[in-house]
TrEMBL record, chain A:
Name this protein carries in UniProt: Germination protein YpeB
NCBIfam families reported in the protein's UniProt record: spore_YpeB
PepSY domain residues: 376-437
Domain Sporulation protein YpeB N-terminal intervals: 27-162
Superkingdom in the source lineage: Bacteria
Origin species: Peribacillus psychrosaccharolyticus (Bacillus psychrosaccharolyticus)
Amino acid sequence: MIRNIVIVCLLVVVAGTSFWGYQEHKEKNAILINAENTYQRAFHDLSYHVDLLQDKIGNTLAMNSKKSISPALTDVWRITSDAQHDVGQLPLTLLPFNKTEEFLSEIGTFSYQTAVRDLDKEPLNDDEYAKMATLYNQAGDIQKELRKVQYLVIKNNLRWMDVETALASQKENSDNTIIDGFKTVEKKVTGYPENSLNPSFSSTKYEDENYQKLKGKKITKEEAIQIAKHYSGFSADPAIKIEKNGKGANYGFYSVSLVDQETKAEVNMDITKKGGFPIWLINNRDINESKLSLNDANLKAQKFLKDHDFEQFELYESSEYDHIGLFNFVSVVDGVRIYPDSVTLKVALDDGGVIGFSAADYLKTHNVNRKINKARLSMEDAKEKINHKVTIMEERKALIINDLGKETLCYEYLGTIDNDTYRIFINADNGNEEKVEKLKNPEPVYENIL
Amino acid sequence: MKGISSKWKGLLSVCVVSICLVTAPAPKEAFSNQIIQRGAKGDDVIELQARLQNIGYYHGKIDGAYGWGTYWALRNFQEAFGLPIDGLAGESTKKKLTNASNFNKAFVHEQINKGNEFTYYSGVDVDKQIKQSETQSKPKTEKTEKTETTKSASVPGGYSQNDIQLMANAVYGESRGEPYIGQVAVAAVILNRVESPSFPNTISGVIFEPLAFTAVADGQIWLTPNEQAKNAVIDAMNGMDPTGQAEYYFNPDTATSKWIWTRPQIKKLGNIFSVNKEVNDLD
């Protein structure tokens, strides 16, 4: 009797478990299919967009009228952006696929810059036509390879989930058609010479990304420590750790960490080997009260800059966070604000100490050969170019990097329409409207308005 | 006698009430000593905005954050009153403003705390200037903990509060056991990727790229981040990049990818190594 009851109970349990297991299994499969479909969609979209991209570049090659080239190139730019978006949704992060992504981005930049250019004044030159022809052929190569992969995926029902597992498990000998296909694409693109880009195109990166142009001689470890001590402001003898850059670095630097013996506050900073310039500094400590106003902190920040040989800087943006003041300064040369040369300072509002400093932008740009020419337009003439709905409140000269990546001398106007404030840059030579931005007001805290 | 006195009393109380509302002569020493500059937040800014609105210079929201609207209002006021036009509320500006305008601190702060939409123009009926907040029925308890009634948050240029929140989630999920500098590094790598042509161009695109971050794959990104993670994100957004321009990093204890081990390292931050794709030949 008891035995029967036990058997019945067990049967019920077994039946229940199997039913539950079956349900789980079904759910898991549904989720897997869902994930697979998302990947498939991104992949087929990618293939379609590269097809389209190649077509559209081909079309522009045959175009003659400027009126049709600009919209066609804008279209190319949009499609590259779509293709990049598709790549970002595929599990290719662990696969070397970056050259292909860079290639797409290259097409995007090229088509954008050519499309926004005034082709009446500056028509496409032969180099640029040649460049477009090359891009057309290269896009054709990629398209061919992708189509092959796409064909195999459809024919053999290949699954992207397998790609994901294969990549995640890092099996060297994993034989996966999709992975192989993408590797072939990447190999093709890697074979393209980098200088297939014309000079006006590569000059968009005018920044001295790797601090090559810094002046000064190489500093030693000892000197780096002295510089770090000076910046940290620690009076007592701090505990010091110093390391130089690893071999993957783009430029030479020392990383110094100083710990104050008493307060245990820690300052980390990087200093360039060449010239001993500070790239950034972070002092991580708790700040629990505000004793100083933002304006007091501003004065402290200015003093810090002066004390560390950053002369001729002007505050252009300040904001207050919880017990912290943040200040952006730009350098001023002959009364012209040089917007690329900016430094950021973070000041604690309890004792006014500088707890954060970043000069990376400034170091990258301030040595670029820069000649500030005389403006051809007067400030009054330039003002005429501004939308008449804007009430102008403030004006000055400024140097900015425009959309085409060139340094341009401008007149800067701050103006308002109703409650919004705009920063407008008018080219001081030809009166072009180089940049218009709506300045941000502090955001409402959502926690409080919901 | 009695009748007259009660009549007087009534009149008097009406006077008192109206004084308390808007027309009260403001106490002269209301502002604190600070010079208020653009970007500041807090009670002084609330007073500045309310006073400027009171005499018709400021038309924005009284939220205690000194933004552009307040800046132009103050400059216009300074111009009209023959003060140096610098957008700084210093001693003389505050004095002139205090004399020219009215401010009822209790009233203004009450409206802000209740979340009411309101204005503070003089010569307009008080009741007409208040629009009751829809969510007023929910009394907010957290208000008592806060000493300041600021209703706005500063955000680094080009980003929103939600960007900060999303990145803080990723940073916390990826590196909550790391020292602060390591967390700034993770945030900096995300931003370097947004800039890079070989990665998606948005913060969410970078974070949710398949297989890019383990914290996204295993769901740890949905843990609630702490203040430190947020501060790290804000530091990185303000241009502090401890990684040496890296787009990749790994933690030797948890890294699953063999490929990442073979990459040339840039530097060590806490337990994290920032790495480059290729070796650079430096001297």
